[in-house]
Amino acid sequence: MLARTCAECAQALLDGHDEPGTVARLEQLAVQGARDEQPLDVIQHAIHEAVTAALDPTAGPGDPDLAGRLRRMVEVLDLMITTVATGYLRELRILIEERRHAVRAMTSALLAGTLDAAPAAEHGIRIAPRYLVLALAADLDDVEVPHRRLRRVRAVLTGRCGEDTLALLDDTGGIVLLPADRCGTGELRALISELTEAAECTLLATVESAAVPRIPAAAQRVQRLLGTLTALHYPSGLYLFEDMALEYQLTMPGPARDRLAAVLRPLEEQPDLLTTLRTHLRNELRRRRTARELRIHPNTLDMRIKRITRLTGYDLTTVDGAWTLRSALVAHAHHAVAG
Questions:
Q1: 47 secondary structure, DSSP code
Q2: Is the Cα dihedral 141, 144, 149, 150 positive or negative?
Q3: Count H helices, E strands: the chain?
Q4: Which tops the pLDDT comparison, 235 or 277?
Q5: I need a surface site. Which of 30, 129, 210, 296 has the fewest CB within 10 A?
Q6: CA-derived radius of gyration, the chain
Q7: Which helix (H) or strand (E) holds 173?
């Protein structure tokens, strides 16, 4: 079918018959080729063969019309190739945008719990029975660069997970849904590492596995946890929801959370003490490491820890005091995120 159409169009153009109609036929050929996912180079090769076959095999060097016929063949070849390439790429852009729109719509529907499988089937997108609900947060303090970083992040996602990756992302992060049967914890950690390199900034990720009906609730949980981890200035990396269950539970509304958050209220007017507490707990109370990170003398750190103890009533150097202050820091961070 392709070879015959190309041959007929080539002959019509070489003979000078109905050029507008033939061009329109070539455009339709390109559109159909894009829709059928036929490689463009296959169509172009068929055009080359059709135009070459139209050359009179009896023509020789002494033929006075040979130069004119060759010139006309080059013109026809250029017209056919240009027409098909332009039409094919135009239709391909339309198809890609339609598919992206369908993917975004499906992602939104899954997150809202209103998925209709019909559009997914129409675009050939498989709905998995279970997904990894991945929440991402990027620390982007440059107002010009984030868009380029976002493009690189999307490129990594597409390269690793395919064009149909279900994702809603902006400059600050977002949600990605990955089929649970295609991605284990090891692969997920490798993906986050690649995304962090692409973003060239701190990138936090929390994840929970959920069946399709439970995706909306899972998305709320991982985003809530992610907000707390961001406020606590956790380092880049992947944090599994099951490993952060305590931190999540401490952010749940109730008198216990409010009481814990109030423990750090005396430090709110002294941000250096809050930073010291947060850094020291993150460093697992390693004195020299914390002092080096804060660029202060270890003795200065000791003085700050004593001030924290005096203001809060809890001794960071004891197991019970450190436990309470760590819990208070999580609750306080959530209050800061919630406004």
A1: H
A2: positive
A3: 14, 5
A4: 277
A5: 129
A6: 31
A7: strand 173-179
